Amino acid sequence: MGSLLIKNGKIVTATDLFDGDIYIVDEKIQTLGARLDLKADKTIDAKGCFVFPGGIDPHTHMELPFMGTSASDTFESGTLAGLYGGTTTIIDFAIQSQGKSLSEALTQWHEMAKGNAVGDYAFHMAVTDFNEKTKNEIKDVSERHGIKSYKVFMAYKGALMVDDRQILQLMEETKKFGGMVIAHCENGDLIDGLVAKNRTAGNLAPRYHVLTRPPIAEAEATGRFTDLAYSGEYESYVVHLTCEESLQRIRLATQRNQKVNVETCVQYLLLDESLYYKEGFEGSKWVMSPPLRKEKDREALWKGINQNLIHTVATDHCPFCMNQKEMGKNDFSKIPNGAPGIEHRMELMFSEGVEKNKISLNKFVDVTSTAAAKIFGLFPRKGTIAVGSDADLVIFDPKEEHTISAKTHHMNCDYSAYEGWKVKGKCKTTILRGTIAIENRKALVSKGFGKYLSR
Ligand code: URP
Ligand code: ZN
Ligand code: ZN
Question: What phi, psi does 417 have (nearest 5°)?
Fold first, then answer.
């Protein structure tokens, strides 16, 4: 491997901002300081640039088999796209099939990722069928696979959804091994009723996706999930929270001194439901669950970040190409749910968040990297710039302007959710465990470079 010296950067962590140099030996940061006079195999001058910890996206779905098709990014293409955008680690979901075991899902996900991922990766375990057999697997999932976060879906009945009793039992079992339950909060029964009614009435266009998944469906499930966690004093994490009503449930939970970790996604901070009303089938590009919301919700989410009610900003990266979206051409309920996003999370959060004074630089680092590392047991190996940490770094030019387009992105998806967006700030160089992964818009690492992170 060797040594690498990054000089003259503005180093930013979740708590600090200082001018300095970073000396890396092999995979780790060895020395931090001002004007380091050390010999290195390679030196990078980061003058005029920020140096951030590599991004951590705690919510992705590479190759997810879902709604009759599979997400179009593999672990190879998806993690590589992440590296182009400064994300060096993902936490993906190994999802149990109902009627099958957790270990079968883990075997499948390890096979998909191992030897393919370019960036580092960990897994959450999604439990869709909690029974005596599943219960007996939790120890092994925790101790052998190093997985501490267990996801439940409160929607997608018949495929992924579990009931409250299963959630409670899972909370009880995983706590024994230092684990935490994390949840997709939407009331599946309420949604299914609305979907059935609209399909019967012949309301089949993409916009009926948002009309059948109202904020109350999310808020009710968010409140119920946090109540279940409160009942047994379990720590919990709400994935992809989208709206003011749900945030209000979180606020209520914190008022009784409950600890709830909360994630939103970049699309819920930047896009809104008007996109579903575009001409023809265009709106299908943003069909995801929960759906995009209103402007007032976006405002509430930015405020929630600054009030420390929302801790992480993920992507829920789950891309489908247009020919896959067309499975729902004549019926919105058959449009595969999900959208691409991993490549531009960091740049969008900088451009729309820091540049527009919605969040500070330190908060930017916290929500895109540090908080996820802390919540999911990767800190301080990942998520910060410190002596002894993995040298996962992004050299970021805050002045460079560029335009997002499917023509130039690296995600395996034939459209961008942000087509034509002008962005200020660019990831120039991405370093993963001391190796330059991306430089001058070129990848210097390939398939299999990514390591599995046991937590
Ligand atoms: O629409 C989405 N979010 N697709 C991926 C699965 C999920 O619900 O997270
Ligand atoms: Zn979800
Ligand atoms: Zn998801």
Answer: -70, -10
